[in-house]
Amino acid sequence: MNKKMRKAQAMSLQVFRKHANSLVVKGFLGLLVLSFAAWGIGDFLTHGRDSTAIKVDGERVSVYALQKAYQQKKSDVQHQLQGATLTPELIKMFRIKENVVREAVQNTVLRSFAKKLGLTVPDEMVAEAIRIQPQFKGADGNFDKDFYQRALGQAGYTTDSFEHLVREDLMRQQLRHPFLDMTFNVDPALKRFSDQLNEVRDIRAVVVTPRDVSAPAAPTDEELSKLYEEVKGKFTTPEYRSFDVVILDLSKFIPDIKVDEADAQAQYDSHKDQYMVPESRSVQQLVFDTKDDAEAALKDLKAGGDFSAYAAKQDKSKPSDLGTVHRGDLPMPELEKAVFTAEKGGLSDVIETPFGATILRVSDITPAVQQPFASVKDKVIGAMQREMAEAVYQDTLDRLQDAIAGSSHLKDTAGLKHVAVQSFDKVNQSGTMLSGTKVALPGEDTLLQSIFQTDEGTISDQIQLGEDKTAFVEVTGTTPARIKDMAEIKDELVAIFKQRATDAAVMAKAQTILADRNKGQSFEQIARSYNLAEPLQTVPALKRTDTLRNNLLTDQSRTAVFATPFRKGGAVAVVTAPQRTADGNIAVFEVTSTDVAEVPADQMANFSKMVHQAMAQDLFTQFLIHLNRTANIDIHDRMIDSALGDTN
Which CATH number does the domain housing residue 309 bear? Predict the structure, then answer.
């Protein structure tokens, strides 16, 4: 190696050590393999037969790589949701597919640009990055090559493909370092911002309440009429409907059915297979990305290898313990056959599944057990009663439909057993009667929806209320929605008028008090002369970021307090306009003193560091935007939608 090359390598290693907290160094088998590996050369080399989903200036991302990243991203989101089921709606809400594609494009653009610049990562830099990882160290604390190779095999990578990933990621870090190393002269601005953020003000307030003004006079008829025209749209009655309803309920027919114990015994004897506790098996799995890795692991396990050691290193998105399974629980016939033909403790052959090359282990077997008749007698009788009641229920439903077809009104169908017509008068869509009473209806939402979709004077089609109930409704009357007459809401109108008059009087008095304060009267003088109901209020050391501590301040009034110009040691400053308090009164504020809370040096340093990092990240983001605009990016949307769109 010539002198220039050695110097370049040494500089690269220094850069690497300096940024030892970068993504690469924080954990290859964690963040790197599960994130950057999804876009890296490793997957592309081992799955070169896959179609290309994304191409950036010749650099390709395979469909397989996207699918792998998509599954990992879903696993991450599910972990954030504490294991909750990831429904299609949640997948859409978290924009998982869009984020996976965006990250794939971004990382591929960076890799392509690095290659155009001719950036290289020396072998020694890659080796050191791997050697320092605690995951690859043996019991003596030193790098263990055998352990390293086994760990990669567990993760589904060869040493060549993994080291290629490390090299690619270090190359991307070289592009990021110039931005991280930039310095910005922001300390003066930070000091001003910090002073503003940590400013504290002592304030006082005079509060005017409705008790401080005269009670308003009652409105005239003309004033009331004018107010009614203004607000009447807020006072409406909903549509009400009167209706008859027939509800056929299977549960009413079941008690009519009597079953002899002898008949139940005969039913049991002829259907014993239905009263078996089925065989169950406890199953564990190991999932590998390649069949070769799975075959190697199976060979090791059959030779006495530790199954739990493999499981401990397995990708957490592929749980090793499948729990207890029965026939029909597993998604593939090959898996079921392997599980239910194995002996206790036995291992399956390698089975290729959509999730990877899989090895199954049966850790326990619970044989099938025949339940005796005595223990299931009630269950057998109940099932027979229900089956016979269903036949009677269906026959009654058929006869009811025939009666409806030949009648004009539901009440004409009375006479069938367990068929009763119920009448309800003036019920709105929320199920409340005109009197305010809530009606009790089975399947309320479904039934009410049908009632308000059925024309007056007609009988509805059959309404299914769950599995065991059927209903028919006839709308017998309609009371349309309307605006209430003025006479109906006179009391409410008077209350609104008086409240408005009181609010206006309170605000007018506050404006007068503000004028007196600006003329030189103190708050103490004002409180005495106006004989205000509320005492003078004081809030010491108020900050812009404080949680509001009482009913005096609102976000708006706090903003007004800090917007009032005030110099330390200067004269008291009065806020320019009265402010509404949190409990609806009106206050006039003044600022009596100001100071800046001292910020510890370490906090200020951390704040400065955070701002520098944010600015550096912003510049790097702008750089990425430029690269994306100038790169030749080809995204095969239809292929991606096909590969990810239906993946749950």
Answer: 3.10.50.40
Q: Are residues 45 and 76 in the same domain?
A: yes
Contact 505, 490 (CB under 8 A): no
Give the pLDDT score at 85.
Answer: 75
Q: Which long-range contacts (CB under 8 A, 24 or more apart) does 211-214 make?
A: 211/533, 212/506, 212/509, 212/530, 212/531, 212/532, 212/533, 213/502, 213/505, 213/506, 213/509, 214/505
Q: What is the pLDDT of residues 163-176, one digit of tens each?
A: 877 887 888 788 88
- Confidence band for 613, pLDDT divided at 50, 70 and 90: confident
Please check whether residues 495 and 470 belong to one and the same domain. Answer: no
Which amino acid type is present at position 134? Answer: P
**Which residues span the domain enclosing 531?**
199-231+490-596
Cβ–Cβ < 8 Å for 284, 322: yes
Task: Extract the tokens encoding 170.
Answer: 């270090």
Give residue 542's pLDDT: 92
Tell me if 585 sits within 8 A of 209, measured CB to CB.
yes
Residues 498 and 577 in one domain: yes
Same domain flag for 21 and 139: yes
Question: What pLDDT, on a 0 to 100 scale, did the predictor assign at position 268?
Answer: 93
CB 177 within 8 A of CB 170: no
- Yes or no: say if 368 and 277 are a contact pair by the CB < 8 Å rule: yes
What are the CB-based long-range contacts (under 8 Å, 24+) for 18-24? 19/173, 19/177, 19/180, 20/132, 22/173, 23/169, 23/173, 24/129, 24/166, 24/169, 24/170, 24/173
Domain termination site, one of 431, 451, 483: 483
Task: Find the distance separating the first CA and the last CA of the chain, reported in whole Å.
Answer: 52
Distance CA 90, CA 87 (A): 5
299-329 residue pLDDT tens = 999 999 889 888 888 766 566 788 899 988 8
Q: How confident is the model at residue 157 (pLDDT cuts 50, 70, 90)?
A: low
Q: How far apart are CA 115 and CA 111, in angstroms?
A: 6
Q: How many domains does the chain have?
A: 4
Query: Where is the domain boundary, 322, 342, 367?
Result: 367
User: What proportion of the chain, given as a percentage, has pLDDT over 90?
Assistant: 46
In this prediction, residues 406-416 reach a mean pLDDT of 86
Q: How far apart are CA 353 and CA 331, in angstroms?
A: 10
Q: Are residues 470 and 498 in the same domain?
A: no
What does the pLDDT look like over 356-368, one tens digit per residue? 889 999 999 999 9
Neighbours of 624 (CB within 10 A): 16
